[in-house]
Amino acid sequence: TANKIRLIPQDFFAELCEQIIQHLNHKIPGVNTAELCQRIQTSGVEINVGDLAKIANILSFLFSTAARNNLSTEELVTTLGSAGSTLPKHAVQVIRHVWNEQGKATAVSEDARSMATVGQFVDMKWKLGVAMSSDTCRSLKYPYVTVTLTVADPSGQITDKSFEMTIPQFKNFFRQFKEMASVLETV
């Protein structure tokens, strides 16, 4: 992983660290590693989304552990050095700077940790379609709804989950949302 971190330009690494801190502080729902990876690749660096997600998970663990143990900036940097860390110098400098600037506000409470094991809903998109035909059936002509949910998993990685529903399934889905809305109004 340290070799992959070496590839990431300092400004992108700093952005990743800042987004992770913001996620831990519940200011953003998660880190969009796919979008960040695309921007890093556009800058000419060869890295894939999986490697960037692993780096984000490691940094998230590092910052949340430091917050849980109330580490100062110097304690964090010393711990990184004493652990036989092979992190590149620019990465340690960025971690030091980000933790010094924003780490003090990071408090990982028990409630936040238990909530973080579930994940967080970010966005939902839907579209209506009609299947005209298939390999096995020449004339289908049935409508369906495709739903794409954007979810931040517990580590803060943002992913899309898509599924299709028939119209009766969608009507049931809609009815359940209306029930949730009416219950939320009473709270």
Automatic annotation (TrEMBL):
<comment type="function">
    <text>Scaffold protein in the commander complex that is essential for endosomal recycling of transmembrane cargos; the commander complex is composed of the CCC subcomplex and the retriever subcomplex. May modulate activity of cullin-RING E3 ubiquitin ligase (CRL) complexes. Down-regulates activation of NF-kappa-B. Inhibits TNF-induced NFKB1 activation.</text>
</comment>
<protein>
    <recommendedName>
        <fullName>COMM domain-containing protein 6</fullName>
    </recommendedName>
</protein>
<feature type="domain" description="COMM">
    <location>
        <begin position="120"/>
        <end position="187"/>
    </location>
</feature>
<dbReference type="Pfam" id="PF07258">
    <property type="entry name" value="COMM_domain"/>
</dbReference>
<dbReference type="InterPro" id="IPR047155">
    <property type="entry name" value="COMMD4/6/7/8"/>
</dbReference>
<comment type="similarity">
    <text>Belongs to the COMM domain-containing protein 6 family.</text>
</comment>
<dbReference type="InterPro" id="IPR017920">
    <property type="entry name" value="COMM"/>
</dbReference>
<dbReference type="GO" id="GO:0051059">
    <property type="term" value="F:NF-kappaB binding"/>
</dbReference>
